[in-house]
Amino acid sequence: MELQKDMPLDITPISQITLGTDPCKINVRIVRLWGFPKKDKLEEFTGIDLLLMDEKAEINFVDVEKLDNNEDNAYNVSTPKPTTKRSLATSKDVQQSSTKPKLMSKAQIKKEK
What we know:
Residues 70-113 are annotated as: Disordered. This protein is mostly beta strands.
């Protein structure tokens, strides 16, 4: 499906986005961003990794490769293969693609420590 500029899109929750999802519109907050600068031009990026959170407090990790430094571009994003990562909030191992993040209050985090 080709994305057309005048085509209205409903907002899709990030939990419903899969590898084969047609172009969609998401409303998210960028929680964390990592940039990968080019070796010869440090002010330009070859790609970025993002942690995105939507209004349902669902968090997703995305990888944007071959980044063009232009505003208003649409990008294809890919979700990496499941790997064991260290959760900053709970310090327990979690699977990125199968375990939803657990939102906790500061008091709950202190109890788990």
